[in-house]
Write a structure and sequence with these properties.
Length: 435
């Protein structure tokens, strides 16, 4: 009997693969045969084994090409202002993996993540999971552990086959839709919107903050019996330099603080957020003070983040045509007497040519950087894409963001500015170095 107990204890000890978060993450990256594999079956089976499929909390799922992170952060802030216990799941992260899972605005700890990963590992048996699926299951597991009232979940890729979609959304939000991730979602807005609409559920309200929603999105909502609320049809906003207003049937809000200076597109995101709050107000009412405080204090790292100085730096995670267009519009609103130096590092699956084409309007000098990640595109490719559309010779290539910043600091003059953009990895590397 004694020997049997020792064996059981040894097995239990061996099942805890790692006590270190970094080792867990490295192992997850190599576990599945491909980094991205869309589909719900594997994740749903493990979630069912863990009892995660019928949560006690309400779910707000957020899909879209751009604006997801901003919309989620603002929703989270306003609901917490109103006193609700909120779980927030987003990806990717800028500096620490823990950023992806927050409860009441605080990142979960390394220890909590390790314990959750261990529970997932025990529950999965021989089921292979991707890095993202592990993270999604950990978020749902930790939200249950913390007894949150609401979980706001960012759909990582698409919607229909994204791991987040194993849970039924009580309300869904689709932000702006543009061409991105064509390999998985399709080559046009209609195809991509059809995938985003996969998060819709029968009778559960859906909000779209894209002012020009593809018809396929509307067709899907009709087929599923999902009541959908559209910007410009069911709710509206207007703005000036200092404030903005919002209205829907039976409600009008005016003199609202602008969420982030210079960022007009954030008003569009905030407008969709207010419509989500309107749809859940019977169960989760918020006051005008909660909303105003949330808007006025809203900041998001890496989204048109201005670091002042003799040569100011602007960090923005824009990585596709639409988000880069918004970045360029914001830059045009801020006069620059000197040169605009662009540090650009991107991933392989992005449309580098379209991004460069947008940035060309404001760029004085190009500084292409390598991303130390398997999905990163090399600097030679970026230079080649630039030269296919421009004769601009003011181009440099660097092995890292640090190297680029060191060089630009030496050659820049007062009144110049430095823009660091192209991906979360590029901006994250800049933040680490600047800190």
């Amino acid at each position: 009997m004694k020997k049997k107990l020792i064996k059981i204890n040894e097995v239990n000890a061996n099942r805890l693969r790692f006590k270190n978060l970094e080792k867990w993450l490295q192992w997850q990256e190599s576990l599945h045969f491909t980094a991205i594999e869309l589909g719900l079956e594997r994740c749903r089976r493990v979630a069912n084994n863990m009892g995660l499929l019928n949560p006690s909390y309400n779910v707000i799922s957020v899909a879209g090409t751009n604006g997801k992170g901003s919309s989620i952060a603002l929703l989270d802030r306003i609901l917490r202002n109103a006193g609700y216990k909120v779980g927030r799941y987003t990806s990717p992260h800028l500096l620490r993996y823990n950023e992806r899972i927050c409860v009441n605005g605080a990142q979960v700890t390394d220890a909590e993540l390790c314990e959750s990963f261990d529970r997932i590992d025990r529950a999965r048996g021989d089921i292979s999971l991707t890095y993202f699926e592990f993270g999604t299951l950990a978020a749902l597991d930790l939200f249950r552990q913390h007894n949150v009232q609401l979980a706001i979940l960012e759909v990582g890729l698409g919607g229909r086959l994204d791991a987040v979609n194993i849970l039924d959304a009580d309300v869904s939000l689709v932000t702006s839709i543009d061409i991105d991730h064509q390999e998985w979602l399709g080559n046009d807005r209609e195809s991509i919107a059809r995938e985003k609409a996969g998060i819709f559920r029968n009778l559960a309200p859906a909000i779209c903050s894209d002012p020009n929603p593809p018809q396929s999105l509307l067709n899907c909502s009709e087929a599923l019996g999902t009541p959908i609320f559209l910007l410009g049809r069911d709710y509206w906003f207007d703005y000036n330099d200092s404030s903005w207003s919002w209205n829907t049937k039976g409600m009008y809000l005016e003199e609202l603080p602008r969420p982030m200076k210079y960022c007009d597109f954030q008003i569009q995101n905030a407008s969709g957020v207010l419509m989500v709050l309107n749809k859940i107000q019977d169960e989760y009412p918020v006051s005008i003070d909660n909303i105003q405080q949330g808007l006025s204090s809203f900041r998001l790292t890496g989204r048109f983040q201005i670091i002042p100085g003799d040569v100011p730096k602007i960090l923005d995670v824009a990585h596709n045509r639409e988000s880069m267009k918004a970045l360029v519009n914001n830059l045009k609103m801020i006069p620059c007497q000197g040169r605009t130096h662009i540090i650009l590092g991107m991933l392989k699956d992005k449309d580098h040519r379209l991004v460069i084409k947008e940035l060309k309007e404001v760029t004085s000098s190009w500084h292409f950087v390598s991303i130390s990640q398997d999905r990163g595109v090399n600097t030679k490719t970026l230079t080649s894409e630039l030269r296919s559309i421009s004769k601009d010779k003011n181009v440099s290539e660097y092995a890292s963001v640090k190297e680029a910043l060191d060089k630009i600091r030496k050659l820049s003059m007062p009144d110049d500015r430095i823009i660091i953009t192209g991906s979360f990895y590029t901006v994250g590397a800049a933040i680490r170095y600047l800190n």
